[in-house]
């Protein structure tokens, strides 16, 4: 790139012949003037800058189809585009690849590349990753806005049962949709807490009673509360299943599987208590019932349905499988090495607690995780030295992957808050523009009546453009107007 202070722009005859053998193209993008040589531009003839070479022979119609303005005196093409993005895009003519500068919106940069007719394949892989992340964010915002719009809209063609089904689904699944829905969500949360507390309190011996055979059992009052909670959970699950738009996806969802695991033990134990005694011994029935009662701890995971923090933690752990795998690998290697060394060093002591290497695994685990129960400990000097090295290595092995896991949690949590705020703001813009459109429509309607409706079509098209400006690109078929989200302002 050469500054255009001493550049010579070739004169063009009426026949379109050039008076200069080496042609120079002078462009002004957002106030920044640049000079390009024909040899560089001809490397990519399908780009807009390369088309400027041949447009001179086509007259002003051809010129203004490619640029915003043209100064025949200065022989300069004008473009009302982003100069910072343009400086990055022209690297393709000199280096064969493009890198985005820091601070440039990826979506706007993609639009700039489309304007200059430069293929996205020239964008470097690191920048493509950033672009794909931004596109995923816009898709997520569009999905959230579309879900809200679907909830607000009423399709008159739907049957009465479909509308009722949608109302029940919103009532149970979307607490933000109405005040009664919030009340139901709070009640569900309270039932989960009450059920968990009853499960814990029921194990206190002083609150248990003796049955006819002399065995301890839960207090009848606690049992009644448990039955009421299970009845609520069952009714809630059945209503959600009936009203779900996709029942197969609903049944296979992880949180819904947790709901089933929280409900199922109660009914299975009830069946075993009343009918199982006829088929098996009473002691076997009681053991099976006690094993099923332990499964009631699954209902605590139902809290994740009402807690965005727990959902964020689950997603962060899911995204951190690689870091968790490294943590387990570090610990596994350390446990194997230090348990083998501990067993070998402790064999010389007559009262050794290290009977075998597999038994030493337990000592290595509690030592490297800095728990240290003290049930197994070394008694020789070398064994103590090995123990000291093992817990120091354990601290390092645990600390290394923790930081990336925390970063994943913070990044996803902040991202969810930004997406939620962006979706709400986009809806506010839609509502604001809709209200302005109605006010402008009522005012222009009086003018149209006085002018006998001559400007009606013009107003209609103008209102359509104004209305489409509030939509996310993925929600609208019109692609000529960038939204506030796409311009990232």
UniProtKB/TrEMBL annotation:
It is found in: Cell membrane. The keyword Ribonucleoprotein does not apply. The chain crosses the membrane at residues 183-204, 248-272, 324-341, 385-406. Pfam families: BTB_2, Ion_trans. The keyword Membrane applies. InterPro entries: Ion_trans_dom, K_chnl_volt-dep_Kv, K_chnl_volt-dep_Kv5/Kv9, KCNF1-like_BTB_POZ, SKP1/BTB/POZ_sf, T1-type_BTB, VG_K_chnl, Volt_channel_dom_sf. GO terms for cellular component: voltage-gated potassium channel complex. Residues 182-416 form the Ion transport domain. GO terms for biological process: action potential; protein homooligomerization. It comes from the Eukaryota. Signal peptide: none annotated. Keywords: Cell membrane, Ion channel, Ion transport, Membrane, Potassium, Potassium channel, Potassium transport, Transmembrane, Transmembrane helix, Transport, Voltage-gated channel. One of its GO terms (molecular function) is voltage-gated potassium channel activity. Residues 25-126 form the Potassium channel tetramerisation-type BTB domain. It is a multi-pass membrane protein. Heterotetramer with KCNB1 or KCNB2. Belongs to the potassium channel family. F (TC 1.A.1.2) subfamily. Kv5.1/KCNF1 sub-subfamily. Regulatory alpha-subunit of the voltage-gated potassium (Kv) channel which, when coassembled with KCNB1 or KCNB2, can modulate their expression and their gating kinetics by acting on deactivation upon repolarization and inactivation during maintained depolarization. Accelerates inactivation but has relatively little effect on deactivation. Coexpression with KCNB1 or KCNB2 markedly slows inactivation. This is Voltage-gated potassium channel regulatory subunit KCNF1. It comes from Sapayoa aenigma (broad-billed sapayoa).
């Amino acid at each position: 790139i050469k500054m255009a202070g001493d550049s010579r722009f070739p004169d063009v005859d009426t026949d379109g012949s050039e008076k200069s053998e080496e042609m120079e193209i002078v462009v002004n993008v957002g106030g920044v003037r640049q000079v390009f040589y024909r040899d560089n531009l001809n490397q990519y003839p399908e780009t807009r800058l390369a088309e400027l070479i041949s447009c001179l022979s086509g007259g002003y119609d051809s010129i203004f189809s490619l640029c915003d303005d043209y100064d025949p005196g200065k022989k300069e093409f004008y473009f009302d585009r982003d100069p910072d993005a343009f400086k990055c895009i022209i690297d393709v003519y000199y280096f064969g690849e493009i890198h985005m500068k820091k601070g440039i919106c990826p979506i706007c940069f993609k639009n700039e590349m489309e304007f200059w007719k430069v293929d996205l394949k020239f964008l470097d892989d690191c920048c493509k990753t950033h672009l794909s992340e931004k596109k995923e964010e816009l898709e997520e915002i569009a999905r959230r806005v579309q879900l809200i719009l679907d909830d607000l809209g009423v399709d008159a063609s739907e049957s009465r049962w479909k509308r009722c089904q949608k109302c029940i689904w919103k009532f149970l699944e979307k607490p933000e949709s109405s005040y009664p829905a919030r009340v139901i969500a709070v009640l569900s949360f309270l039932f989960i807490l009450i059920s968990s507390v009853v499960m814990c309190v029921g194990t206190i011996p002083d609150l248990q009673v003796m049955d006819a055979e002399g065995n301890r059992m839960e207090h009848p009052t606690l049992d009644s509360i448990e039955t009421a909670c299970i009845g609520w959970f069952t009714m809630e699950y059945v209503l959600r299943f009936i009203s779900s738009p996709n029942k197969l996806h609903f049944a296979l969802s992880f949180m819904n599987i947790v709901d089933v695991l929280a409900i199922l033990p109660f009914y299975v134990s009830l069946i075993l208590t009343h009918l199982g005694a006829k088929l098996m011994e009473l002691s076997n029935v009681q053991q099976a019932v006690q094993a099923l009662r332990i499964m009631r701890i699954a209902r605590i995971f139902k809290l994740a349905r009402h807690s965005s923090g727990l959902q964020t933690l689950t997603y962060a752990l899911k995204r951190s499988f690689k870091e968790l795998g490294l943590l387990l690998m570090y610990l596994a290697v350390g446990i194997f090495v230090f348990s083998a060394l501990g067993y070998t060093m402790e064999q010389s002591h007559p009262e050794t607690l290290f009977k075998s290497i597999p038994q030493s695994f337990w000592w290595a685990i509690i030592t490297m995780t800095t728990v240290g129960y003290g049930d197994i400990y070394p008694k020789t000097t070398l064994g103590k030295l090995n123990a000291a090295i093992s817990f120091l290595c354990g601290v390092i092995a645990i600390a290394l992957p923790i930081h990336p896991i925390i970063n994943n949690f913070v990044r996803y949590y902040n991202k969810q808050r930004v997406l939620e705020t962006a979706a709400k703001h986009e809806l506010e813009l839609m509502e604001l523009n809709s209200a302005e459109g109605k006010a402008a429509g009522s005012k222009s309607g009086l003018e149209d009546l006085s002018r006998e409706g001559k400007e009606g079509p013009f107003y209609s098209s103008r209102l359509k453009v104004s209305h489409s400006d509030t939509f996310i690109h993925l929600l609208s078929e019109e692609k000529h107007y960038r939204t506030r989200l796409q311009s990232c302002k």
